[in-house]
Amino acid sequence: MFLVIDIGGTYLKYGLATIDGEIVQHSKVKTPKANYQALIEQIVAIYNGLNVQIKGLAISVPGTVDTKAGQIFYGGALPYLHKQNMKNDLAERLATHVSIENDGKCAALAEYWQGATAGYSDSIVLVFGTGVGGGIIVNDRLLRGAHLGAGELSFVVDRYPHNEKRARMVGRSCSATQMVNQIAMQKGLPENAGEMVFDYINKGDHEALELFKIYCSHIAVQILNLQYILDPNIIAIGGGISEQPIFIEEIIKQIEVVKQASEFSIANPKVIPCKFKNKANLVGALYQHLLEYQGLVMAEKD
Questions:
Q1: Within this chain, do residues 263 and 288 fall inside the same structural domain, yes or no?
Q2: Among 38, 101, 242, 279, which residue carries the largest CB count within 10 Å?
Q3: What is the pLDDT along the chain (302 residues), one digit of tens a residue?
Q4: Judging by DSSP bridges, how do beta strands 84-85 and 64-66 pair with one another?
């Protein structure tokens, strides 16, 4: 069995997985907020509390990750991860192989291995939540980039109004959390009331639907940009919001709206939902671990 862990800003999800990628049991605890050492102690406690032999520890983390060196940079919602070498720190404490990978890249690996993008040599996975994460597969290889930043769509500049001091980033304009809270405020709902917000959207409430369409239009623009830059076979959409059928339906509609408003457009992105939902990072972390330690290689295709 392998221990797989997905470290998020709110929860640390973990489970036991077989070498085939089946998550046979899973649970979660609150992510320690105090400091990095508290996080390490939490992971060690989870590992030592298991009553099975662990063949390896595979971890998904926020931030830019140097998988070979084991170093994490920035850390997203967990700034204390910056410049920490989690791979080495845990390997010193635990008698097992340790791997770490960026959470968005884990999602892309999971879908490529056994999910929605399996069988495609070129694909993109976009994960919508507080920001926008993701991963890019090119010629059956995970694209990391010269500075390990490939796929970090949150940091793409959406636009820069010259009468404002700050550029507007995709992480905000395409944030599912921000869209939900904007509609919630308009309707007098509490923050993060996703289900109630989508009740309004699905029932065709004019105000909620209008804000939702604007949000999906921002996403459509970025998908078209990615299609022209990378020309993938397929683009898979993940994150909790992707479980709402109307979300991907509206993105596809807005892609056509943007194309019709363009002077010349030949792109036809194929957009589908991800398969693994909230388990994607766990499955992808395992696949990264197998690539590193089990001699597994990403498929070669003609």
A1: no
A2: 101
A3: 999 999 999 999 999 999 999 999 899 999 999 999 999 999 999 999 998 999 999 999 999 999 999 999 999 889 999 999 999 999 999 989 999 999 999 999 999 999 999 999 999 999 999 999 999 999 999 999 999 999 999 999 998 888 888 899 999 999 999 999 999 999 999 998 999 999 999 999 999 999 999 999 999 999 999 999 999 999 999 999 999 999 999 999 999 999 999 988 899 999 999 999 889 999 999 999 999 998 776 754 33
A4: unpaired
Which domain CATH number covers 22? 3.30.420.40
Between CA 69 and CA 72 the distance in angstroms is: 9
Residue closest to 194 by CA, chosen among 176, 167, 209: 176
How many domains does one find in the chain?
2
Could you tell me the end-to-end alpha-carbon distance of the chain, in angstroms, rounded to an integer? 33
Nearest Cα residue to 158 out of 172, 179, 178: 172
Residue type, 148: L
Q: Which domain holds residue 92?
A: 2-102+278-293
The alpha carbon dihedral of 267, 217, 174, 196 has a sign of: negative
One domain for residues 128 and 268: yes
